[in-house]
Design a protein that fits this description.
This protein is α/β, with parallel strands linked by helices and about 325 residues long. It has 2 domains: about 160 residues, Rossmann fold; about 150 residues, Glycogen Phosphorylase B (Rossmann fold, 3-Layer(aba) Sandwich). About 35% of the residues lie in helices and about 15% in strands. The chain contains 12 helices and 13 strands. It has a 7-stranded parallel beta sheet with strand order 3-2-1-4-5-6-7, with helices on both faces. The protein has a 6-stranded parallel beta sheet with strand order 10-9-8-11-12-13, with helices on both faces. Helix 1 packs across helix 12. The mean pLDDT is about 95.
Length: about 325
């Protein structure tokens, strides 16, 4: 009976995407081996989201220093008797991982959250689209690339679904799992001529004022039903950390936010990069307008995206981690 702890949490500045993918992995572990006992170690603000997914939560409190985080994590791991620990923390450094590696049978760490000189982990995970370009100094098993993309269970029913591009993309979905750039997206879309219907998922307070009386926008809170919303739209605008979600649907996508993933996606025809938030280039609006009207270009993008994700990533990674754990 594996006892598994996750050290992951949402962040008010960078979003909930790390926590969300760890919840997806946890569901894969539980479905692969129902005997798994899984506990999330995180801030109190995550308790409700974790409980909704059916997992236990142990609160660590406000840990402003990495050393405090390490001590609190090690203490909880010991109390739980956890023999596997999954770490997805941008604050984790070499000492953090090496100290925890000696306290559990299996330590798995996400490498795309933090770039280190060495990784003292038994398994290193990077499910990003450009993971094969990274060099990870790690002696453990490497699980890299979108074959390990961690989509939550709500996406399971859409594993065989692929979007059909209309002549003009009019049904748009704007959402962000990381930093919320919905305001930038709305400002960009407002500059476009013509008719479209944009559903904007955001908790931002300024959004209603920015939208005003423009009937092309429908704003709602960013909670639940994301898979169904993606299946019902023609085009997505999101952040680079979320590209694997529309990729499952082969849904043409534009990205806001500068990152190596955005650059890679743009260079390889996987998405349109609109640039950094807070200063979107007017050229981006022109490129977006052209793409929304160009079915052939969107068909090419859909074909590339359809090769990225098959929806089985969380099961694939769960099986690999459990097999590694059993063999140690």
């Amino acid at each position: 009976m594996p006892k598994i702890a996750f050290r992951a949490e949402s962040d008010p500045k960078t979003g909930a995407w790390r926590l969300q993918r760890c919840l997806a992995l946890a569901s894969g572990l539980k479905e692969s081996d129902p005997s798994c006992e899984i506990t999330f170690l995180s801030h109190a603000r995550d308790a409700q989201a974790i409980a909704r997914c059916g997992f236990a939560h142990a609160q660590l409190g406000d840990l402003t220093l990495t050393s405090w985080d390490l001590d609190a994590t090690a203490e909880k791991v010991g109390e739980l008797g956890a023999d596997m620990l999954v770490v997805d923390r941008p604050a984790a450094d070499e000492g953090f991982l090496s100290s925890l590696a000696g306290k559990v049978k299996t330590l798995a760490a996400f490498g795309d959250s933090v770039r280190l000189k060495s990784y003292a982990a038994h398994a290193l995970i990077d499910p990003s689209i450009h993971a094969h370009l990274a060099e990870y100094p790690c002696d453990g098993a490497l699980f890299l690339g979108t074959e390990f993309a961690l989509l939550p269970p709500e996406f399971d029913e859409f594993q065989e679904f692929r979007c059909a591009n209309p002549e003009k993309a009019r049904r748009l979905l704007v959402y962000f799992s990381g930093q919320d750039h919905a305001l930038d997206a709305v400002r960009l879309l407002k500059s476009l001529p013509g008719q479209f219907s944009a559903t904007v998922l955001s908790d931002g307070e300024e959004l209603a004022r920015e939208i005003g009386l423009d009937p092309r926008f429908n704003s709602m809170r960013n909670e639940g039903n994301l898979a169904r919303r993606l299946a019902a739209c023609d085009f997505a605008i999101t952040g680079p950390e979320s590209l694997c979600e529309p990729a499952l649907f082969a849904l043409p996508t534009a990205l806001i936010g500068e990152s190596p993933a955005s650059d890679y996606a743009a260079k390889n025809g996987l998405a349109l990069s609109l640039g950094a938030a807070g200063g979107l280039d007017p050229q981006g609006a022109m490129s977006l307008e052209a793409l929304l009207s160009d079915k052939q270009a969107r068909d090419r993008m859909s074909a590339r995206l359809s090769e990225l994700v098959d929806g089985m990533g969380r099961f694939r990674l769960a099986e690999e981690l459990l097999e590694l754990h059993r063999g140690k």
